[in-house]
Amino acid sequence: MSSGTTRILDDLAKLMTDAAGSMQSAGKDLETAVKAQVERWLNSMDVVKREEFDAVRDMAIKARDENDALRARIDALEAKLGGKTGE
């Protein structure tokens, strides 16, 4: 091959590499833009984040367990008192 043909092929390879890099960059930019738009949309709908939901759910489970334990203690105390409930 002549050096002219080699140079053309080198330039073509560089052009293809640059194009692939540009496409990858454009894809990342698009992904970032879509994520930002979806986040704005969800925020406008007052949708809670998963982490917040999980935290509140865990608090509710703990409160229910504590209530069950307290109910058991009350029942045991009432049984000791002969079923009197302060009526």
UniProtKB/TrEMBL annotation:
PANTHER family reported in the protein's UniProt record: UBIQUINONE BIOSYNTHESIS ACCESSORY FACTOR UBIK
Protein name per Swiss-Prot or TrEMBL: Pyrroline-5-carboxylate reductase
